[in-house]
Write a structure and sequence with these properties.
Layout: H1 5-20, E1 29-35, E2 40-43, E3 59-62, E4 67-69, H2 78-87, E5 93-97, H3 100-108, H4 117-122, H5 135-139, H6 142-154, E6 164-166, E7 172-176, H7 179-203, H8 212-220
Antiparallel strand pairs: 1-2, 1-5, 2-3, 3-4, 5-7, 6-7
């Protein structure tokens, strides 16, 4: 266990942040992080409560899903996480929740429109929803197929420009260059999802998208080589 102590500590902190931010109910969610040099992932075990979760409970797997360390079964969503790690080397952490407002959009099968600067700070694009899975995909390796649908959706713009997406009928997945960043994206996504729904209700229909020049300004001041938000 000592050989993965730093990774375990980082991933444990990310998992414990999910209930602290009100993003999970019961055991509905998980976070993972990857050590790219060693090709190993630490992920929450399946069905274990956050109130008792410890670093030792985390399961260490390789990129094929083979368990290297841990007495518990890894999250049932592990194949989805692995699909994202294999497809996008820049991803360092993945978070999955069933947070209320983002899940509402996923269940509606609708992308979250880019209506304001809060959304633009998170992503310069609407938050997309994946395609429906086929009967064969659901009957087969369901969680891996979910990962395939996510990677197809992300591939259009890349995981840096699009830090989260909605799995149709299911819930959101978020990612980042580290697992802590993935948690931050999950927090921001939940706020953006709530704001978008309330904005639609207040507008009695679909309000216009944020003007492109404002969208670009807000996104680029926080992301990319011209960013100047924060302390560098």
């Amino acid at each position: 266990m000592d050989g993965f102590a730093d990774l375990r500590a980082e991933v444990l902190a990310a998992n414990l942040a999910l209930p602290a931010h009100g993003l999970v109910t019961l055991t509905w969610g998980n976070a993972s992080g990857i050590d790219r040099e060693r090709g190993v992932i630490a992920i929450k075990p399946s069905g274990v409560g956050y109130d008792t979760l410890s670093a030792g409970d985390l399961v260490i797997v390789d990129l094929t899903g083979r368990v290297l360390e841990g007495a518990r079964r890894p999250s049932t969503d592990t194949p989805t996480h692995l699909a994202l790690y294999r497809a996008f080397p820049e991803i360092g952490g993945v978070v999955h929740t069933h947070s209320t407002w983002a899940t509402v959009w996923a269940q509606a099968g609708e992308e979250i429109p880019l209506l304001g600067t809060t959304h633009a700070d998170l992503s310069a694009h609407p938050i997309p929803v994946t395609r429906p899975l086929t009967v064969a995909e659901v009957a087969g390796d369901y969680e891996a197929a979910t990962g395939t649908a996510l990677t197809e959706t992300i591939a259009t713009v890349g995981p840096a420009a699009l830090p989260c997406a909605l799995v149709r009928g299911h819930a959101p997945f978020c990612w980042g260059d580290r697992v802590g960043a993935a948690v931050e994206h999950a927090v921001a996504l939940e706020q953006v999802a709530q704001m978008a729904l309330f904005t639609r209700l207040l507008s009695d229909g679909m309000p216009p998208a944020l003007e492109e020049h404002v969208r670009v300004k807000h996104h680029t001041r926080k992301h990319g080589p011209a960013a100047y938000y924060g302390q560098g």
